[in-house]
């Protein structure tokens, strides 16, 4: 892992909700063009960690971060939050297309609201993003329809297309398939595999089979600490810590 | 057998409460029916084309209309909305998106207090602030009084409606690298626009029906106003003056004025709903 180029490096990251400490010193390195899965029982801080990576944690009242998070070696907390979020996109647990917008406008939102006026360019990017999100064939004749008229799985792929449209380098996924049926879940997992060569993906999941299927590296979190982090195959076959083994085999969680 | 008795007791209790709700609803509908019935029955016969095009006639002369009062009400409400809408909507956005601190709490409390201030008090304040220094009654003074009356209603409804927009849409926008003010205006306010428009309509309907503050500020005018720093006519003040007069045709015109006022508000409501309806209205709001 050491000879890989690191996209994101966190050093001793602590996260707080008011006085409640949700992360207790997390240091992780995420290699470029890899998929990193974060697993752990509810309330272990996986989502908080994910939201620290694109500075969304601080939008929660009382949310505070200490420590260093480097994106390509530069401290994201020294950058403008809006710039960070353009480079580090996010897909949420519950599909959340903008309810007042059409399918087209949803994908275009990140572009048009950031001042890109060139209609032709926007159209091209929207089509390309929908292709990448494997949704184009299903919606190409209905781009003017409401985004929320789609099925849950389609809505989630619409949200993925929406975040791809602003051309991020990293995509954070917060349990992206937990609200979806098995077929939609399979589609999302396939999509993650296809996106991997071009993006760095960090995915939080409750589903351990999913982590084993889609990720190159897995991090196991427990009550705000990082218990174990390494190559997925190794974590799932020969974990070093007893706690990890117990969680993976379902003895606690 | 015992079980059947208990079942009967439960169902009868259910029917009893259902019946109470129906009775309450019917009682609530009575005043609405009375108002609509009387305004239509007494207002329609006095309503004709002249009512909209002609000026009030002197006492004793039959006919004439309230063209100046209809125009005056539209101008007063329009000017009042120019003051009340931007202030109210911006204050509502502030309270919802940024007003979690002590200052927001104070503003929220004061807005509720302002909402409870009788409109005649607002009229006296506008009289003291504008009419006395300028030494004459004017349309401006009336508009300021009406504008102040609109602010609390619009502020609180805007705030409530914006708070109903789920956090997940705010987060989705922020995570796309959209700045906070664009996210607020183009995602949050747009999603809540249906509810905000309802609040605006309530506020406009309220000020269009105000009489007391206008007596201190816009006064009234039996003639056509030439500038806005003159006293201006309004339907409500004419309804008030004509309604208590001893002349039959004036009383009839007061009813016609009431009918026109209600219709104006209704037309405006429908037009605004139509103009601001979204193609993809959020079904949850």
CATH superfamily of chain A: P-loop containing nucleotide triphosphate hydrolases
CATH superfamily of the largest domain in chain B: MetI-like
Estimated helix fraction of chain B = over 70%
Oligomer: heterodimer
The CATH architecture term of the largest domain in chain B is Orthogonal Bundle
Estimate the global geometry of chain A from the Cα principal axes. globular
Whole-number mean pLDDT of chain A: 94
Give the largest chain-chain interface (CB within 8 Å): A-B, 32 and 28 residues
**CATH fold assignment of the largest domain in chain B:** MetI-like fold
**How many separate domains of chain B?**
2
- Based on secondary structure, the structural category of chain B is mainly alpha
Distance between the termini of chain B: 48 Å
- The average pLDDT value of chain B, as a whole number, equals 92
Separation of termini of chain A? 28 Å
Please give the largest β-sheet of chain A: 6 strands, mixed
Q: Helix count of chain A? A: 10
Give the beta-strand count of chain B. 0
- Sheet/helix structural class of chain A: alpha/beta
Rg on CA atoms of chain A, Å: 18 Å
Strand proportion of chain B: under 5%
Give the H and E element order of chain A. Answer: EEEHEEHEHHHHEHEHEEHH
Q: Key terms for this structure?
A:
heterodimer; A: 253 residues; alpha/beta; Rossmann fold; six-stranded mixed beta sheet; four-stranded antiparallel beta sheet; B: 285 residues; mainly alpha; MetI-like fold; 2 domains; 12 helices; globular
Give an account of the 3D structure.
The complex is a heterodimer of chains A (about 250) and B (about 280). In chain A, about 35% of the residues lie in helices and about 25% in strands. By secondary structure, chain A is of the alpha/beta class. In chain A, strands 6-7-8-3-9-10 form a 6-stranded mixed sheet, with helices on both faces. Chain A has a 4-stranded antiparallel sheet with strand order 2-1-4-5, with helices on one face. In chain A, a hairpin with a 2-residue loop joins strand 4 (about 65-70) and strand 5. In chain A, helix 3 (about 105-110) runs parallel beside helix 6. Chain A is globular, with a radius of gyration of 18 Å. The two termini of chain A are about 30 Å apart. The longest helix of chain B is centred in the first third of the chain and has 42 residues, at about 1-45. In chain B, about 40% of the residues are buried. Chain B has 2 domains: about 1-45; about 50-275, MetI-like (MetI-like fold). In chain B, helix 5 crosses helix 6 (about 140-165) and helix 7 runs antiparallel to helix 8. Classes of the chains: A alpha/beta (about 250), B mainly alpha (about 280). The interface of A and B includes residues 85, 87, 114 and 146 of A.
């Amino acid at each position: 892992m050491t000879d890989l180029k690191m996209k994101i490096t966190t050093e001793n990251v602590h996260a707080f909700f008011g006085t409640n400490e949700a992360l207790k010193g997390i240091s992780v390195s995420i290699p470029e063009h890899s998929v990193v899965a974060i697993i752990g029982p509810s309330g272990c801080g996986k989502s908080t960690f994910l939201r620290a990576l694109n500075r969304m944690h601080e939008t929660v009242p009382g949310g505070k971060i200490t420590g260093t998070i480097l994106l390509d070696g530069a401290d994201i907390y020294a950058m403008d939050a809006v710039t960070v979020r353009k480079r580090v996109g996010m897909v949420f647990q519950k599909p959340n297309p903008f309810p007042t917008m059409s399918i087209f406008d949803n994908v275009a939102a990140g572009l048009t609201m950031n001042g890109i006026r060139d209609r032709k360019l926007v159209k091209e990017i929207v089509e390309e993003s929908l292709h990448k999100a494997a949704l184009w064939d299903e919606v190409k004749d209905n781009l003017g329809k409401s985004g929320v008229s789609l099925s849950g799985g389609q809505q989630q792929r619409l949200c993925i297309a929406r975040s791809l449209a602003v051309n991020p380098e990293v995509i954070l996924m917060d349990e992206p398939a937990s609200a979806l049926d098995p077929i939609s879940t399979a589609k999302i997992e396939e999509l993650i595999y296809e996106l991997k060569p071009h993006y760095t993906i960090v995915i939080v999941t409750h589903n351990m089979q999913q982590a084993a299927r889609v990720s190159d590296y897995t991090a196991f979190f427990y009550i705000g600490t990082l218990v174990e982090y390494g190559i997925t195959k190794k974590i799932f076959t020969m974990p070093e810590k007893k706690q990890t083994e117990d969680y993976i085999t379902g003895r606690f969680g | 057998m015992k079980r059947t008795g208990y079942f009967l007791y439960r169902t009868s209790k259910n029917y009893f409460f259902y019946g109470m709700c129906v009775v309450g609803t019917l009682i609530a509908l009575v005043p609405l029916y009375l108002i609509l019935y009387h305004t239509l029955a007494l207002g329609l016969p006095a309503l004709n084309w002249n009512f909209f095009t002609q000026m009030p006639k002197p006492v004793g002369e039959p006919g004439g209309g309230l063209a100046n009062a209809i125009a005056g009400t539209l101008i007063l409400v329009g000017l009042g909305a120019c003051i009340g809408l931007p202030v109210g909507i911006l204050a509502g956005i502030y309270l919802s998106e940024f007003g979690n601190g002590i200052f927001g709490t104070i503003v929220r409390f004061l807005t509720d207090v302002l909402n409870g201030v009788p409109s005649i008090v607002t009229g006296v304040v506008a009289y003291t602030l504008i009419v006395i220094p300028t030494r004459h009654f004017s349309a401006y003074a009336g508009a300021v009084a009406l504008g102040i009356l609109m602010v609390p209603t619009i502020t609180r409804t805007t705030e409530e409606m914006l708070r109903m927009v789920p956090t997940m849409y705010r987060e989705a926008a922020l995570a796309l690298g959209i700045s906070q003010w664009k996210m607020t205006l183009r995602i949050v306010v747009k999603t809540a626009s249906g509810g905000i428009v309802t609040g605006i309509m309530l506020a406009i309907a309220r000020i269009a029906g105000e009489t007391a503050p206008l007596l201190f500020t816009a006064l009234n005018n039996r003639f056509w106003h030439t500038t806005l720093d003159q006293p201006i006519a309004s339907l409500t003040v004419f309804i008030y003056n004509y309604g208590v007069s001893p002349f039959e045709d004036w009383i009839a015109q007061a009813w016609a004025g009431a009918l026109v006022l209600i219709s104006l508000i209704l037309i405006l409501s429908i037009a605004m709903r139509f103009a601001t309806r979204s193609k993809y209205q959020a079904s949850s709001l």
